[in-house]
């Protein structure tokens, strides 16, 4: 069985003749652009289209049809279906249904806010904006769970937590749909 090498010609050359930065005549201090010389960051080359297709396949290069808004809609649908199921088959229909719905809402409301932030910043998105948005989402989720526990007197823990986890794992299901 033959093994194919998907390395670029530059990577293949480096494997045959590895050299340290000093052997290549490079300085050992800090580079002008803030990166440490010899860190290997200068050796990184982006994949060409043909290399990416050979490694990942043509389908992996297509953009996903699953948008953050669709993920939120899927979370709402999962939460509603779970709340309906808990209300129909639970011992106390109203507390079970509301507990389940509020557990799902603790997941999809912060996600909807995050999706709205992404949509609003679609022309000027940044890593910092994503980090801040994700932090707001996590804090919002915790705050909503605390509010549900403190304010809803008929809370049923199992329906709330099960629906929260189902809505939370909707992201993984959404990743499967490209």
From TrEMBL:
Topology within the bilayer: Multi-pass membrane protein
The protein's name: ATP synthase subunit I
Keywords associated with the record: Cell membrane, Membrane, Transmembrane, Transmembrane helix
Species in which this protein is naturally found: Cupriavidus respiraculi
Record region (Disordered): 1-43
The keyword Transmembrane is annotated on this UniProt entry: yes
Ranges annotated as spanning the membrane: 71-89, 95-116, 128-151, 157-177
Compartments where found: Cell membrane
InterPro entries per record: ATP_synth_I
Principal subcellular localisation of the protein: membrane
Family matches, as Pfam families: ATP-synt_I
């Amino acid at each position: 069985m033959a093994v194919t090498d998907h390395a670029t010609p530059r990577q293949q050359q480096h494997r045959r003749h590895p050299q340290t930065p000093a052997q290549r005549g490079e300085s050992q201090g800090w580079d002008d652009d803030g990166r440490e010389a010899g860190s290997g960051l200068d050796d990184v080359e982006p994949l060409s289209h043909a290399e990416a297709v050979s490694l990942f396949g043509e389908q992996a290069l297509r953009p996903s049809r699953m948008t953050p808004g669709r993920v939120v809609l899927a979370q709402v649908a999962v939460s509603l279906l779970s709340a309906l199921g808990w209300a129909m088959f639970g011992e106390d229909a109203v507390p079970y249904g509301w507990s389940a719905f509020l557990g799902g809402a603790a997941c999809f409301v912060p996600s909807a806010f995050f999706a709205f932030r992404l949509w609003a910043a679609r022309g000027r998105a940044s890593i910092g904006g994503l980090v801040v948005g994700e932090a707001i989402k996590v804090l919002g989720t915790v705050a909503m769970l605390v509010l549900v526990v403190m304010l809803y007197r008929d809370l049923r823990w199992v329906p709330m937590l099960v629906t929260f986890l189902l809505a939370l794992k909707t992201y993984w299901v959404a990743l499967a749909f490209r």
